[in-house]
Structures are given as C-alpha cells and as structure tokens.
C-alpha cells in the first residue's frame, strides 16, 4: 500500500545521488523508482555499470526525521545479522547534509498485494531461520520496539466505537495484560513483519525479509504471530475465510502467547486509528481501522480459546 507519495530519485539532491554511486564503486546506468511504504523519501532500484543491481532508500531529516532515524538504525542492524538470515546485505550508507541513503543488495522476488499459501510458507520459513538465532547483544529488548499494546484498555477508557468493541475490548485487555513479560526472550526478532516487508520468490519457495529497523531480542514466536495477523489484515488471495483459517492454523502451532500477541496487535491498530493522525500519511488511520476490522473474527475466536 502507498501511504504517501515518494520523492523521485531524480529529484533527490545531486550530492546524495553522487555519494551513493561513489560508495557503490560503479556508475549508475539506469534506475527504477519504487512505490509504496511509509516513507516520503525515494526508494529505487539502481542498475550499475558493473552489472549489479542495488536497492536504495533515502530521506531528508527535514522532510521526516523519523524515517531518517530508521534508515540509520537499519544500517547498523543489517551489519550484525547472522549470515544465514534471509535479509538484504548493506552495501553502503551515506549522509549529505540532512539526507541519508542506505544501499543494499537487491532482493530476488516480488511483493504481491495478497498472501498465498506459497508466500505464507516461504515467509514462515525465513522467520523460523531468523528466530532460531540468538539476537546480537547490541539489539534492544523487544519491549522497546512494541508500542500501544495497552490499546484495548485505552479503547475502553476513550469509549468503544460499536457493539463489537463494547463486548470485546474488556476481555481483550485481560488477554493482553502482562505483555512486557510474555514477549521477552533472547531470539532475533524482525518485529515488523508484513507482506510489504517481504520479497517472495514463488518458484523457489523462498522469501527475503526486508526493513529491519525494528529488529530486537524477544520471544521466538513473535514474527510468526505477526505473520498470522498480517495474513488476515492484508488478506489472502482465496478470500477472508481462508485468510482467517490459515492464520488460526499457524497460531495453533505456536505457544498461547502468540495468540495473545495477535489480540494486542488489533488493539494497537484500533487505538492508533482513533488517536494518531499524520499529515505525511493521511490514509494511515483508515488503513489501521481496516486491519482491526479484518481481524475481528480471528480475535473473537482467540479470546474464546484463551478464556
């Protein structure tokens, strides 16, 4: 989904584009602007004179300081990921004035609009490989990468929007209680698992996990729980019922805390849709409301299981 129009690579300052080419050690012979995501900065595939391809994302701190910090944060994280983790490799990070740019290896695959059984399995496999590693010691605990997991409690305090929220917010808040404790662990966690943060090679049955800025140390099931939530929230090519069934089936292979995590995610999106606005991403509140609505059948089922 495109949350905000991205600056074209050609419209980025000459200084940052020249610095990227110099850091990559080869002239840029062609580029393709990419769209989607939550940053107003350019995202681009570069074709280099030596035959390589590279992915580059850049942003000015004067446009959105948060995304500038995320690029710097991800740059450091990519350098410490274990070699077997399916992630892009950092090639260069350059800064010129308020601008920062990160160049990585090009990830083979595509990012489809909806999940399929093939992409679910490929991404789940990539998650299990990553989560099987102990998190590098420089990564923070996942509690520092989780926000608004008191969402259902705050929804009750703010006032529920409809009958479903009125009947479910209380039990959901009880299910989520103590999340700081039951999300803790020492596994490597991506923590921002969504379909648009993956590149899937359907023929090979493989996937690359993208956008590692929120990587942390946590429980080894967190990414798979977030995958289950996203299958429902983003949607499955075979429809809503299949999406919910696939997510429920995946959660059935995980500890009960994974189901609690999904309930917490729904509460997070619900309270953010109600209270957080963004001039840079004016459509994000509607996106959050749609995700929460899509998750309602699954959340009802999980609350019943956990009660």
UniProtKB/TrEMBL annotation:
Gene3D superfamilies: 3.90.1200.10, Phosphorylase Kinase, domain 1. GO terms for molecular function: transferase activity. Keywords: Transferase. It holds the Pfam family APH. This is Aminoglycoside phosphotransferase. Residues 60-253 form the Aminoglycoside phosphotransferase domain. The lineage of its organism: Bacteria, Bacillati, Actinomycetota, Actinomycetes, Micromonosporales. The keyword Kinase does not apply. InterPro entries: Aminoglycoside_PTrfase (IPR002575), Kinase-like_dom_sf (IPR011009).
């Amino acid at each position: 989904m495109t949350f905000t129009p991205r600056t074209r690579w050609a419209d980025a300052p000459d200084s940052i584009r020249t610095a990227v080419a110099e850091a990559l050690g080869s002239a840029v012979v062609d580029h393709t602007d990419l769209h989607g995501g939550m940053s107003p900065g350019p995202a681009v595939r570069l074709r280099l004179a030596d035959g390589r391809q590279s992915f580059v994302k850049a942003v000015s701190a004067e446009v959105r300081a948060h995304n500038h910090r995320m690029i710097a944060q991800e740059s450091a994280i990519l350098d410490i990921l274990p070699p077997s983790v399916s992630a892009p490799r950092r090639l260069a990070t350059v800064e010129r004035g308020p601008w920062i740019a990160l160049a990585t290896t090009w990830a083979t695959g595509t990012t489809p609009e909806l999940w399929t059984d093939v992409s679910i399995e490929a991404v789940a496999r990539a998650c299990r490989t990553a989560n099987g590693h102990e998190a590098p010691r420089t990564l923070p605990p996942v509690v520092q990468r989780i926000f608004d997991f008191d969402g259902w409690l705050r929804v009750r305090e703010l006032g529920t929007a409809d009958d479903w929220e009125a009947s479910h917010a209380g039990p959901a808040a009880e299910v989520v209680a103590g999340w700081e404790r039951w999300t803790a662990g020492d596994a490597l966690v991506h923590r921002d698992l969504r379909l648009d943060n993956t590149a899937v090679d359907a023929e090979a049955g493989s996937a690359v996990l993208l956008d590692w800025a929120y990587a942390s140390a946590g429980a080894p099931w967190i990414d798979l729980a977030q995958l289950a939530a996203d299958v429902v929230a983003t949607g499955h090519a075979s429809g809503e019922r299949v999406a919910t069934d696939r997510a429920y089936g995946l959660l059935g292979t995980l500890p009960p805390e994974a189901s609690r995590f999904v309930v917490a995610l729904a509460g997070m999106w619900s309270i953010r849709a109600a209270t957080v606005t963004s001039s840079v991403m004016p459509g994000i509140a509607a996106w959050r409301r749609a995700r929460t609505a899509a998750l309602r059948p699954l959340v009802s089922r999980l609350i019943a299981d956990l009660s």
